Amino acid sequence: MNLRQLAAFLLAIILLIWALPAQASDYPPPLSFSNAELKGRDFSGQTLEVAEFSNANMELANFEGADLRGAIFSASVMTNVNLHGADLTHAMVDQVKLIGSDLSDAVLVESILLRTIFDDVNITGADFSDAILNRAQIKELCAKASGVNSKTGVATRDSLGCR
């Protein structure tokens, strides 16, 4: 390899490396609603993958049919929220108050749900396959589990490992 070929090779490498950050910036940052007041907001049918809702007040919000895969809801208030048919696969829903909420036909596969309160929730047809829950939560949810998820075909009781 002569000097001219070496210079051309090095220039090509430099241009390639320089272009990499520009390619990475083609992806928008995740939406952040952390610490927001979202009472009564309508997010139905929206694509909100990896959106952040940590410490948000989402009382009476509507997420029906929303794509919430990988979303973060840590320590949020989700009282009387409609999550019917929402996809929460890989979502982090830890330390959340889901009081009076509708999780019917929701997909919660491999979601983290530790220390979440499930008082008076509708879980008919919800799929909790491989979700992270503690024994007390599983016992509470199994007491009201019924139905089959329309998207995954998995029975709610089976997804929770109910006996």
Automatic annotation (TrEMBL):
Pfam families: Pentapeptide. Keywords: Signal. The keyword DNA-binding does not apply. InterPro entries: 5peptide_repeat, At2g44920-like. Residues 1-24 form the signal peptide. It comes from the Bacteria. PANTHER family: THYLAKOID LUMENAL 15 KDA PROTEIN 1, CHLOROPLASTIC. This is Pentapeptide repeat-containing protein. It comes from Funiculus sociatus GB2-A5.
